[in-house]
């Protein structure tokens, strides 16, 4: 993270969504690369191109269970006039000493086994009698049950072209090819490829560690009994899940009471495992909004560049926001509003891009599209505010879900998009094309 503090423009300045996001992304920096074992690198971003050291497959091998033969020996074979070949033994996957297949001979070969010297093609076992002399078979008998199957004669009932059912050396990737580009996010297929070419470790930007903390003396953990005036803490669960969905390793801290000293101590304790801290609640103008009070004294107060600025944004929901860095390592911190919808919308607009930036991704934003508004009446929006309404998007159309209230969690659970109403628009009629942020 850069040590630069957020720019200040005075208490009365109303920040735009774009200004606030620009400030965040100009301050947050990608994490330093490290070398990780393959499975530890899942979800991380490569920082270097990976070149193939050895071709895949590294040798010609069979794609079928069957018999390795010479083309001339099975030319013209049919069920009426089968080719009869001497079976010289088995060729199994992983076998180092290979048999030689000469004229009139066949080697029983297993899927993935190297094509033996002298053989030119593979005849599937279903095209043979499996060495039983009783017509076409459906499979090969296990060697442990019938070791004599690797000897004697086999009847072949169909011809095979040269290199039929043979996977050629380098048919997947060749030595010297580029396997993966820098900037690739490592998922299961990419990890499989790295393992297949012999890479046990890889250089990546690690997944950022995000600590999520909700504040409020009224918050109770799920499964506990609610007392008078209490509600369940949903924000910390929602934002921790959202951080993991964005690619982070996220840690949820239980709700902290409205006490500045307790909150300050908790944040300082959590700095050791945080590349990014996210708080929710306590950023407005109430008498018990202690986040601002606590964050003004967190970490090394004399450390140049540290500090958190609290702002008012021209958006709905999510007007109150905080952003800055804390502690000796200038750990970035985003302070979000406490209302559930405000908190989640703020995460999608500001925290998710910050996480993706820490990961070193080129594209840090949710995809956006245009959609036709389907609604029973016009949508209204406050003048001078960019409004983000929950919506259900499908097939080029979007329908509002729930009202504009920032406490409506149930509606949020049924939304897969945010409908964006610009600052200069106060009413949107049904049928109008609107901008949509796709959430899933």
What would the keywords be for this entry?
440 residues, alpha/beta, seven-stranded mixed beta sheet, five-stranded mixed beta sheet, 8 helices, 18% helix
Strand content: 25-35%
Alpha carbon gap, first and last residue: 28 Å
Structural class: alpha/beta
User: What is the strand arrangement across the widest sheet?
Assistant: 1-19-21-22-18-14-17
Report the mean per-residue pLDDT as an integer.
89
Q: Unreliable stretches, pLDDT < 50, 5 or more residues?
A: none
Overall shape: elongated
What percent of the residues sit in helical stretches (DSSP H or I)?
10-25%
Q: Treating each run of at least 4 consecutive H or I residues as one helix, how many helices? A: 8
| Biggest beta sheet attributes | 7 strands, mixed
How would you sum up this structure, described in words?
The protein is an alpha/beta fold. 18% of the residues lie in helices and 29% in strands. The protein is built from eight helices and 29 strands. The protein has helices spanning 17-27, 71-74, 188-196, 235-246, 260-270, 291-295, 340-359, 409-413, and strands at residues 14-15, 34-37, 45-46, 50-51, 61-62, 66-69, 83-91, 105-109, 121-124, 153-156, 166-167, 178-180, 201-205, 209-215, 219-220, 231-232, 249-256, 276-280, 307-313, 315-316, 320-326, 331-336, 368-373, 379-380, 386-394, 397-400, 417-421, 427-428, 433-438. The strands form eight sheets. The chain has a seven-stranded mixed sheet, with helices on both faces. The chain has a five-stranded mixed sheet with strand order 9-6-8-7-10. Strand 25 (386-394) and strand 26 (397-400) form a beta hairpin. Helix 1 (17-27) runs parallel beside helix 7.
């Amino acid at each position: 993270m850069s040590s630069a503090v957020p720019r200040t423009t005075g208490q009365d300045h109303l920040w735009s969504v774009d200004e606030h996001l620009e400030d965040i992304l100009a301050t947050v920096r990608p994490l330093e690369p490290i070398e990780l074992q393959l499975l530890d690198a899942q979800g991380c971003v490569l920082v270097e191109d990976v070149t193939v050291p050895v071709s895949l497959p590294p040798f010609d091998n069979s794609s079928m269970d069957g018999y390795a033969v010479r083309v001339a020996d099975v030319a013209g074979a049919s069920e009426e006039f089968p080719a009869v070949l001497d079976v010289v033994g088995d060729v199994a996957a992983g076998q180092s000493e290979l048999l030689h297949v000469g004229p009139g001979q066949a080697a029983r070969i297993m899927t993935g086994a190297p094509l033996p010297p002298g053989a030119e093609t593979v005849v599937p076992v279903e095209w043979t009698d499996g060495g039983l002399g009783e017509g076409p078979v459906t499979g090969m008998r296990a060697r442990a049950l019938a070791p004599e199957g690797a000897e004697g004669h086999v009847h072949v009932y169909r011809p095979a072209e040269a290199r039929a059912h043979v996977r050629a050396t380098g048919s997947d990737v060749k030595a010297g090819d580029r396997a993966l580009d820098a900037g690739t996010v490592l998922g299961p297929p990419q990890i499989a490829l790295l393992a297949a070419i012999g890479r046990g470790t890889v250089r990546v930007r690690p997944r950022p560690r995000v600590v999520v903390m909700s504040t409020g003396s009224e918050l109770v953990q799920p499964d506990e009994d609610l007392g008078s005036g209490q509600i369940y803490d949903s924000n910390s669960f929602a934002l921790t899940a959202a951080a993991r969905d964005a690619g982070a390793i996220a840690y949820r801290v239980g709700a902290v009471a409205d006490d500045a000293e307790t909150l300050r101590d908790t944040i300082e304790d959590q700095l050791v495992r945080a590349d990014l801290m996210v708080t929710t609640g306590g950023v407005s103008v109430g008498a018990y909004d202690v986040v601002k009070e606590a964050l003004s004294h967190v970490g090394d107060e004399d450390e140049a560049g540290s500090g958190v600025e609290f702002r008012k944004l021209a958006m709905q929901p999510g007007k109150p926001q905080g952003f800055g860095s804390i502690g000796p390592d200038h750990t970035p911190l985003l302070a979000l509003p406490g209302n559930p919808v405000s908190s989640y919308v703020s995460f999608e607009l500001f925290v998710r891009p910050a996480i993706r930036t820490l990961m070193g991704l080129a594209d840090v934003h949710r995809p956006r599209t245009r959609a036709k508004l389907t609604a029973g009446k016009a949508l209204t929006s406050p003048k001078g505010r960019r409004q983000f309404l929950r919506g259900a998007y499908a097939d080029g159309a979007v329908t509002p879900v729930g009202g504009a209230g920032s406490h409506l969690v149930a509606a949020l659970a049924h939304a897969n998009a945010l409908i964006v109403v610009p600052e200069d628009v106060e009413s949107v009629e049904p049928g109008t094309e609107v901008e949509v942020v796709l959430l899933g």
